[in-house]
Amino acid sequence: MGYASIKTSLPGNRSRELLERRQQAVPKGVSFGAPLFAQSAEGALIQDVDGNTFIDFVGAIGTINVGHCHPKVKQALHEQIDQFIHTGFNIMMYEAYIELAERLARIAPGNHDKKVLFQNSGAEAVENAVKIARKYTKRQGIVSFSKGFHGRTLLTMTMTSKVKPYKYEFGPFAPEIYKAPYPYHFRRPQGLTIDQYEEYMVEEFRNFLITEVAPETIAAVVMEPVQGEGGFIIPGKRFVQGVYEACKEYGILFIADEIQTGFARTGRYFAIDHFDVVPDIITVSKSMGAGVPISGVIGRKEMMDQSDPGELGGTYSGSPLGCRAALAVLDIIEEEQLNEKAQKIGFRVIEKFEQLYDKYECIGDIRGLGAMCAMEIVEDRLTKTPSKKLTNEIIQEANKRGLLLLSAGVYGNVIRLLMPIIITDEQLDEGLKILEQSIETVEQRRHIFTN
Question: How far apart are CA 39 and CA 26, in angstroms?
Fold first, then answer.
């Protein structure tokens, strides 16, 4: 008997009732992946209000690396609630904040002295990283990258590339934000080898510092080591190091946005570790709290101390519940060896992807780093024309069979996998089998209509 179990039509009766209530009470601008409502969740499984069980390959968009409702996280939260829920760290402090800061400073890349600030969301972490960089450098310019995503606030929306749905008609945008080109190996110019392309992109970045903005005015470069919403686009080490070297040359801070890539997702605590680069500042969130809102900024001591009291922080920033959940997450990663497990998951997924690539022409590219894996769906491999339509059809077919999937990419044609790293081998294999069945069904349907 499998783990996925669909007992009703989707959505079921209860979900349909809740959908009707949602339409009356919730703005349509708040999106949803599947028209379903959760009843319970544990590990890598979610049950909806109609009794259907789904294997979760989304993990709340990379928030549930340690799994849904991990016993250690639940215990930590219960213990904290019994003590107190919130005092406001800027009113009366608590030890969990200090302990979490100490532990993150220890595991973050580099042997330099570090300090850590906590906030509520990934966007807040990026906002504060920018504030810190500007305060320290006395410069205003911020460079992010094409296809990147950093949030939905005014500043982070400006730093984000994808216009629809994140930016359309929400301007004017924040000033002094510049976007540099980011490598996309699958869509590199024809005739260039990967090494040639990487060198070309480093040169393009240096040209950018001449043609678009003077480096002396730039406070920081903000880079996702692996672009998440952009489509799980993985740069080469040469590019990342080339950008880093340019930053050092011009006194520009290098900020690694690890909000989706952090906490064992790529087989390391931080994805930037794969590139042998030590950032000045790191932003973290998502799986840091196992579902409890919390984010952080980890930075060099002299940079973090540049701001005066009251210039950083917030009412709920680094809440006791978030800090206790994050401490439990760090324990789980270490005790259950999730970095090692993420590497094994990634190997199994890519191995399966390679088999699927050989069978189905709609798969244009496969890529991954650790357990951060994706396939890009195209009309055909010759033209590489993105197919958002086929991507959505595959996801819908997977939902019908009990697998939750999520798309990504500026063209909406990438299927990204963010399953909890604690997923069992049996659950992983079943989920991958459902994915294959869904692709096969969509491809058969396409050929029937085109022949």
Answer: 19
Whose CA is closest to 406, among 384, 435, 443, 378? 435
pLDDT digits (tens, 9 = 90+) for 402-412: 999 999 999 99
* CB contact at 8 A, 34 and 10: yes
- Beta-sheet pairing, 177-180 with 141-145: parallel
Q: How far apart are CA 135 and CA 113, in angstroms?
A: 19
pLDDT given for residue 317 in this prediction: 97
In angstroms, the CA 249 to CA 196 distance is: 23
* pLDDT tens for each residue of 14-72: 999 999 999 999 999 999 999 999 999 999 999 999 999 999 999 999 999 999 999 99
Q: Contact 149/230 with Cβ under 8 angstroms?
A: yes
CATH 3.40.640.10 in the chain, residues?
Answer: 71-335
d(CA 330, CA 128): 23
> Domain 13-56+337-450: which topology?
Aspartate Aminotransferase, domain 1 (3.90.1150)
Q: How far apart are CA 316 and CA 120, in angstroms?
A: 7
Both tokens of residue 327? 């401490």
CATH of domain 71-335: 3.40.640.10
pLDDT at 449: 66
Separation in Å, CA 412 to CA 180, 377, 393, 415, 447? 21, 9, 12, 9, 22
pTM tops 0.90, yes or no: yes
Residues of the chain with pLDDT under 50: none
